[in-house]
Fold this sequence. Notes:
66% of the residues lie in helices and 0% in strands. By secondary structure, it is an all-alpha fold.
Amino acid sequence: MVNMSNVSKNHPQHFIGIDYIKVFACFAVLLVHFRLNIQYTIPANIFGRYVALFMATDYQLFITSVPLFFMCTGYLMLNKRFSYQYYIKLGRVLLLYVICSLLTYMILVAVKQQTLSIGQIWNGIWSYQLISYAWYV
Length: 137
């Protein structure tokens, strides 16, 4: 239960339901990754044909975890006032992303001898394709 006497003006209400959704989404992310890592290692002859049904069902149910996080964040930011500090923090995140992208490119050059032009690197960074796992930035 939320003690409303300790709530500040900056955070007028705390929605416990959002916390429950985020907890569910955390477990859903874990289950999706668990499923992706074990789906071909379960012997079907021991566990039967229902393993494939379970794997397909849990994937479809738990793949919603990332959109749930986005929806929770959007809901919590609905009435947010964007200040100068907010944009400074956003700039830091983008700077970190650019640094990680360039480091990833240097690793690709060193390991796979993959070279790109400056324009391709620029487009790859800002289209989030240089690092394939950075789509969420």
